[in-house]
Amino acid sequence: MSAPNVDLVLVLDASDSMRPCIDQLRRHLRELIKPMQGYVGKIRFGLVSLSASSADGAQVFKVNTLAGGTESLQPLYAGARGQYEFFTEDPDKMIRTLEQIEVTGDEHNLLALDIALDHPFGPSSTTKRIVAMFSDEPLEAGVDRASGVSRIQALIDKVHKRRVKLFCAMPYSDAAQRLSEANGSEVEAVDGGPGLSSVNFKALLTQMGKSISVSALQGGLADEAPAALFGQDRWQFGDFGWNGQDAR
Amino acid sequence: MQSPIQGAATLPPTAESSPSVTAHLLPSAADELARIRREMPRLLIELSLRMRAGGRPFPALHFGGPHKVIRLSQETAGAAEDWFFVGDLHGDFFALHSMLRHAETLHPGCRILFLGDMVDRGDHPFESVFLLLEWGLKRPGRLAWIAGNHDVAFDLPDGAEFFTSLVSPAELLQVVNRADALHGFRRELGRFFVNLGKGLPRALLFPDGLLATHGGFPLVDLQAHGAQIEDEAAYLDWLNSPACLKDFTWTRIHRAPKKLPDRHSTGAQYGFKDFEAFCALKPDWFPVQRMITGHEHPADGFAVHATYKINPAMTLVGFGFDDLRAMPEAYAHYTDVLHIGRGRAGALPEVLPVPVDRSELAWMYPELIAAPAVGADASASEPSMQPDAVVAQET
Questions:
Q1: Per the omega criterion (within 30 degrees of 0), is the bond before B328 cis?
Q2: Could you give the CA distance from residue A87 to residue A205 in angstroms, rounded to a whole number?
Q3: Residues in chain A within 8 Å Cβ distance of B324
Q4: Does residue B377 sit within a domain?
Q5: pLDDT tens, residue by residue, B278-321
Q6: In 3-state terms, what secondary structure has residue A78?
Q7: pLDDT band at B22 (very low <50, low <70, confident <90, very high)
Q8: Chain B window 2-21: which residues touch A at a Cβ cutoff of 8 Å?
Q9: Which residues does chain A have with pLDDT short of 50?
Q10: Chain B contacts of A217, Cβ < 8 Å?
C-alpha cells in the first residue's frame, strides 16, 4: 500500500486585522507537517489569501496564490496553467509567500474558499485533498454578505463533489455551523480575537496535521463541479483597485 | 482543530482481565496459524456446503436469511453479558486469536459478535476468516458476523478473470489475483469470501436497544421515506432495501450534531442528531437506543463518542498493527493492548483490555518484533488506560 499524497490549500482572510494569524501560521507551519511525516507521501501546499474592498461602487479584490497575485486567477480558470505553479512541495517557499502577504481591507472568506476548491488538486484516488481556512471574522461578515451566505449550499455540494476535506478555524456563526455539515469537514469555532492572536497555533496545527494523517481518502473519482461560483472567472483585470489590481 | 472522534471514556482494567488470567491456556497464535492453514482446504469444502440452502447450518447467526437487518428476539439474543464484541480485524490473525482466547478464558460460554472488515491490510485474511468460522462451527449459535464494507466490496463479476473491490487500496486483491501455483486454490477462497459477504447480516438489534452495525444507519435523506411507512413489515423491508443496507455498512460516525448526506461519497458521515432522528423514527418497530460500530479506527483502540449523549454510541477496533504504516512495518509498531467489548444490558458494552503477549507476537513476527527479555516484568509494558484524546483513522 503506497501512502496517499496530501494537497493542502491554506485559505487566509487577508483583511486588516489578520497579520498575527499569518505570522503564527508562518512560524508554526512545520508543526502541521510533523504529524504527517511517515504517514503520507508527498505533501504539497497551496495558498489563497484574499482581501476585499469597494471602490467606485465596484467590489475590488486582492488575491494571492502560490502562482502569483490576482492575475494568477486567469490561468487558474482559463485552464492554461502552463508555467504557473499552484502547489509547492517546499515549505520554505510557502513560508516566504506567507511573509509577503499584505493585509488590508475587508474579507470575503467564502469567495476565497471557492478559489481554493478550484485549485488543480492531485487525483482524488491517491491524494487527500485538504482546504484549511482561517479567519477572525464570522463567515457572514465582510463584503458581499448576502450573496456569500446564499452560496453555502452550493459550496458544500462542491466540497462533496471535489472530494475535499475542509478544516476551518473561525468564530462560531450560523454559517459556520452550516459549513460544518459538509461531509469530511471539521469546523473549529475559535474566539481568538483580532488576528486570532490568542489562539495556540502550535497546538491547532499539530492537531490538524494528526487529523489529516489519519483521515481517509475521500474515495472514488471526483465529480464535475461548477467552477467559480462567484463569477471570479469573469473578472476584469484593469488599472483600478489596489496596486493596479483587479475589479469586477 | 479537533479530531473527528473525541471523548474516549476511561475504563479501568478489571480484575478478571489481568494478563495472568490469559496466559497460554490455549494454543499460541503461531501454532494456531499453522494448524488453520492445514485445515483450510477441509474447512473450505465444509463451509461451502453449509452455505448452500438446505444444508447444515452456517456457523454465523442469521447468515443468508431473507433480511440482513434483524431485530433479535430475546430467545436468540440470550444474556447481554454473554456477548463479546470485536471490531475491525483487517487480516490480523494474531489479534483475532488473542481476543477469542481472552473471551473464552473470561467466560467459557461466551458468544462473539464480529463487527466486520475481516480483509485488506493485514497479512492473514483467509486464515482469519477460517479461524473465526471454525470457532463458530465448534460452538453452534455463538458466533455472529456483521458485514463490513471491505467484506461486501469484494467481488468476482460474471465472466471476469480477476477479482475486484470497491475499496482502495484493497490488499486482498493482490492475494487472490496472484498468478502462481496456488492460484486455483486462492480463487476458490476468493469465491467463498464473495459468497460469504453476500450472506452476512448488516446490522443486529438486541432486545435492550443496542444496534450492532459496521458503519451506521440510514441517513436523514432516506429517513424521510421511512417516516412515512405505516406498516411494521413494510418498515423492516425498507430497512433491508439496498439503499439502507448500504448506509448501515458504509456510513461514518462524526462528533458533529448533523451532517448532510454526501451521496458522492460511499463513506458519508452522520452526526449525533442524525442518530437521534433514526432512533426516534419508529421506536415500536425498531427500538434503537444505542449503537456499537466498527469502520472507524480510533487510535486508542476504541472510542465512546462524547457528543452522543441521548443515544450513546461507541466504536471498537480489533486489529493491533499501526495501520497508518505500510506492511509489514505496521506490525513492528504493534499495540501493547487490544480491546474487546463485553455486553451489558441496557448500556453500551464495557471495553476490556486484552494485553498483547509480546513474546507470542515476536514468535509470529521474529523479523519485526523483538522478543522481551527473559524475566521482564510483563506489567511494565502494560499501557495506560487513560487516553486523553482519540484520533480517528477512517477506512
A1: yes
A2: 19
A3: 38-39, 213-214
A4: no
A5: 999 999 999 999 999 999 999 899 999 999 999 999 999 999 99
A6: helix
A7: very low
A8: 2-4
A9: 239-248
A10: 168
Q: State the pTM of this model.
A: 0.86
CATH code for the domain in which residue B111 is found:
3.60.21.10
DSSP labels, A71-104: GGHHHHHHS--TT--S-BS-HHHHHHHHHHPPP-
Q: Are A6 and A130 in contact (CB under 8 A)?
A: yes
Instruction: Say whether pLDDT at B334 is over 80.
Output: yes
Say what the pLDDT of residue B13 is. Answer: 37
DSSP state of A16: G
| pLDDT (0 to 100) of residue B386 | 33
Q: Is the dihedral of CA B10, B12, B13, B16 positive or negative?
A: negative
* Alpha-carbon span A172 to B365, nearest angstrom: 50
pLDDT of A240: 39
Instruction: Tell the residue number behind the cell numbers 474515495, with chain if given.
Output: A219
- The helix (H) or strand (E) run that includes residue B341 is strand B337-344
DSSP calls for A167-228: EEEE---HHHHHHTTSTT-EEEE----GGGTTS-HHHHHHHHHHHHHHPPP--SPPPP--S-
Q: For residue range B162-197, what is the model confidence (pLDDT) as tens digits?
A: 999 988 778 899 989 988 888 899 999 999 999 999
Q: Residues of A numbered 36-65 whose beta carbons fall under 8 angstroms of chain B's beta carbons: which are they?
A: 38-39
Find which of A214, A223, A224 to mutate to test the B interface (most B CBs within 10 Å of its CB): A214
**Using one digit for the tens of pLDDT, what is the confidence trace for A25-34?**
999 999 999 9
CB A44 within 8 A of CB A8: yes
pLDDT at B85: 98
Pick from A46, A128, A123: nearest CA to B324: A128
- The reply to whether B169 falls in a domain is yes
Determine, for residues B1 and A211 on separate chains, whether the beta-carbon distance falls below 8 Å: yes
B261 neighbourhood in chain A, CB within 8 Å: 183
Grid cell, residue B336, equals 501493547
B13 is a domain residue: no
What per-residue confidence (pLDDT) applies to B25? Answer: 54
Q: Is B16 helix (H, G, I), strand (E, B) or coil?
A: helix
Q: Put the strands of the sheet holding B337-344 in their side by side order.
A: B143-145, B111-114, B83-86, B337-344, B347-355
Contacts with B166 (C-beta within 8 Å, 6 or more apart), sequence order: B149, B153, B155, B266
Please tell me which residue of chain A has the smallest CA distance to B272: A181
| CA-wise closest residue to A187 among A197, A203, A174, A200 | A174
Q: Is residue B12 part of a domain?
A: no
Instruction: Please tell me the total count of domains within chain B.
Output: 1
All cell numbers assigned to B296: 472507524
pLDDT at position B371 over 90? no
Question: How far apart (Å, rounded) are the C-alpha atoms in residues B264 and A160?
Answer: 6
Domains, chain A, with CATH or none: 5-236 (3.40.50.410)
Q: Is the pLDDT of residue B32 over 80?
A: yes
Tell me the C-alpha distance between A34 and B141, whole Å: 49
Separation CA B377–CA B373 (nearest Å): 9
What's the CA angle centered on A61, arms A59 and A66, to 5 degrees? 165
What tens digit of pLDDT does each residue of A123-140 get?
Answer: 988 899 999 999 999 988
Record: contact A156-B392, CB cut-off 8 A: no
Q: Is A160 helix (H, G, I), strand (E, B) or coil?
A: helix
In this predicted structure, what is the pLDDT of residue A83? 76
Task: Look up residue B129 and give its amino acid.
Answer: V
